UniProtKB/TrEMBL annotation:
Protein name: DeoxyPurine in DNA protein A domain-containing protein
Pfam families, A to Z: DpdA
Top-rank lineage group of the source organism: Archaea
InterPro entries membership: DpdA, TGT-like_sf
Domain DeoxyPurine in DNA protein A span(s) in chain numbering: 41-225
GO terms for biological process, alphabetical: tRNA modification
Amino acid sequence: MADEFRFYYGCASGSARKALRKMEEPNVMISHATANNTPFQTIENLFTDSGGYSQLHTHREYQSSDRQYLSYLKEYEPELFALRDYPCEPGLLWKLNRTVRDHQQRTTRHHRKLLDTYNNADIGSEPVAVLQGWKPEQYLSHLDELREEGVLTQYVAIGSLSNRNPETAAQIIHKIRNALSSKHRLHAFGIGTDTLQLPRVIESLDSADSAAYDFRTRMREPRQTWRQQVYHYLSMKRQIKSWRQKSKCQQSLLQSLQQ
């Protein structure tokens, strides 16, 4: 794990964008597939997601070309961007009549295709390979495949973690961290806050993202104003800060016991 764990706040709705902009949140995740995907000026660290789930759920395939995606990256210069992947949530696979293996292979092929174009595009943003699967052993087999195909980047992300059982998500994170070398950094896409608070999860990650505060606003508030988004965003931010501090204390205690 990096010296400083970084958490990116996702924003798909207009009220969520305004809330993060008003609060000058520096770490933001924006999906390329979102209708309003233009970054706002207060962002210091931008992570661009390819928006695979929404694209496949609605259209069965990405609607923009790889060159269009790379042109967007060249224009807005995010710090990090996800290589295009194919999520493995069971509901999506059932709808598309595909298997986990189908989407792992599609992810690997699209990574290679996109990286070949990226290498000639003069883009400064760092690419992030996305591991796909559903069971822990499936993620590990996809990790081996990406490595063998030469498309395993230095920064690696874990996909299909949204709405997972916290213990299962934590198990996947730990197994992948143990399978990666120390030079690799690890990101968790759409991780639940109930997973982040489990033992050693934050220590295993360099970064993570979530738009759960936006979901809470839409579920709990009759009118979705940006001020209500701010309330849930700040609540989430306090929780994450508390877990990070707890994690640092645990690490310090462990180091002192080992001396």
